[in-house]
Design a protein that fits this description.
The chain is mainly β. It contains two helices and ten strands. The chain has two domains: 20-87 and 145-168, Chitinase A, domain 3, CATH 3.10.50.40; 92-139, Thrombin, subunit H.
């Protein structure tokens, strides 16, 4: 460092490598997001940060993950998805009705979530969609099935995943899944 007449000259410093972390395979990416339908109605909004390991089997919708590739902190993406690219078409075979007395009291109102187990031990989460004339209708479709939707995602953090995170993923908060 050299000083001349009240000024300070600092030696030249060079940053090592790329100081901007881009989203690539095996990076932990932290985001917030919202999902809207075609009319702009907000179907889901996650304001608490959600993290996942990019390029792993994180459960993230593939086209959303593809759109995030190469992005950096502060970037925002909007990804329009048809049902086939997201949660599938609504399938009538995934609904059924039964007599109300066959369901415990706590599941006898619209919006109640019921977890059913079949003979092989597979579970299926269903939602009560209708209670009428002594009957209860349950729907096993994803709530966004059959809808054209748009994911709006904001990147909050990008960092290298630890070896454990690459293998096991990131610990998530319940209910914040980025589907």
């Amino acid at each position: 460092m050299r000083r001349e007449k009240g000024s300070v000259t600092l030696p030249f410093f060079r940053l090592r490598g790329n100081s901007v972390k881009r989203i690539t395979r095996n990076k932990v990416v932290t985001v917030t997001y919202r999902v809207e339908d075609e009319s702009g109605e907000v179907l889901e909004r996650i304001d608490l940060p959600v993290s996942y390991v990019h390029g792993s089997d994180s459960g993230l919708v593939e086209k959303v993950e593809d759109a995030l590739e190469g992005k950096t902190v502060g970037d925002e993406v909007a990804v329009k998805l048809a049902p086939a690219d997201a949660f599938g078409e609504w399938e009538p075979g995934m609904t059924f009705s039964d007599a109300i007395e066959n369901l415990p009291q706590q599941y006898r109102q619209p919006g109640a979530e019921v977890e059913l187990v079949d003979d092989e031990g597979e579970t299926l989460k269903m939602v009560v969609t209708r209670v009428e004339n002594g009957m209860v209708t349950l729907d096993g479709n994803h709530p966004f099935a059959g809808k054209n939707i748009t994911f709006y995602v904001t990147v909050l953090e990008v960092r290298d995943a630890t070896p454990d995170e690459v293998v096991n993923g990131v610990q998530r908060m319940p209910a914040a899944t980025l589907h």
